[in-house]
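Annex B. Sample input.
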Amino acid sequence: MKIKIDIDPTHADTPVVTIQANDWNEEVEAIVRHLKELEKAEAAPKRLVAVEGEGSVILQPNEIDFVYSANRKVYAQTQTKSLELKLKLYELEEFLANHSFIRFSKSVIGNMDRIVRFELSFNGNLCVFFKSGNKEYVTRSYVQHLRKQLVEGGGGRGE
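Annex B, continued. Sample output.
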């Protein structure tokens, strides 16, 4: 692959990316996918606001081990505490997708960059251990998707 960059003050304000190839292949597809992810990431909000007692706390996505729903509320689990979020789980899944989060079960979204190790449990679920010492389970129906994300490089933009 060759990369050519043309910096010129006479160009328009918005950058234009041109890809030249003799056919559509996996490499071209990966480049396009990556550019679209970058564009989405730039437009997306960078922080979450959580509720703690009477006040609000600003959370960076990289501080969160996992997000889960319980008793019709949604919580973010950090290294030391669980904080309530005022968004729905599906809204958080969309927001956090650009920050290496992936669905673990119907009620949990986990941060792939904070995972230390896995253990297979007797019922076919995966037990995921985070850097903070927290643990959560990936249900059988989501294990294959998680494995695919790990193999294809989902996450891994770690610290």
